[in-house]
Amino acid sequence: MGFLGIALFAGLWEVAGQKGWFGMAWPPLSSVVMFMASPQKQALLAKAALATTTMVAIGYAVGASLGMLAAVLVHFVTALRPGMDRFASLLHSIPTIALAPIFIVLTSRDYTGTAIAGISVFFVSYVAMTSGLSAAPQAGRDLFAVLGAGKGTRFLHYDLPTALPTLLDGLSYAVPMAFIGVILGEWFGASRGIGLLMVSAMQNFQIPMLWSAVLVTSLLSLAAYAAMSQIQRWVQRLFR
After folding, report:
1. Which fold has domain 28-238?
2. What are the pLDDT digits (tens) for 82-105?
3. Domain ranges in the chain?
4. What per-residue confidence (pLDDT) applies to 69?
5. Range among 20-29, 103-112, 185-194, 208-217 rated most confident
6. Closest to 206 (Cα-Cα) out of 33, 69, 35
7. SS3 for 1?
């Protein structure tokens, strides 16, 4: 069914471009693919994709790690939970585009997108981890207490395995958010990346280049999301 949806979308894209329903700004998919077939364009797109993917991986890893560590902290020190929840919600409520100028000053233009991606992933991973840890049935916790297990033992052998499916579900949805954050940050003057190609293409009205960058970003995000989904299914089968 997933391939059917992609095929339908590609067909509609081609028809809309051929018929000119949206003007010159919407070329046929075949024109974009022919543009990307050039070895010179492939090298340019590959270099930009590598830079963007690297920044996405860094932002994703940092954001997910901090989110999970914060969730584990409030799991053990419950008094911190209300404050951490409010902090995460406040951070998430700030428009990411408003944070970009701040990160340009604090870090650099090249790492602004990474910081934005990290914040987005932090919120998702924190919420997913705390929700998963809280969802562990009380009966299991009581059993560990009766057996004399400490909180650390219970966390490793009960709370964490129970929370893994929910955590991985959240981490899967965080993948597109990481790409959006990095691309948005690259619009603010990064020296490399797919976002820079998009800005350059828009400024010079290079429509095929613009859509090629969009298509590459979409394929990378879908591939990363599919990989995380496969890991999630494997974990669910493992702990079923």
Report:
1. MetI-like fold (1.10.3720)
2. 999 999 888 888 887 788 788 887
3. 28-238
4. 95
5. 208-217
6. 35
7. coil
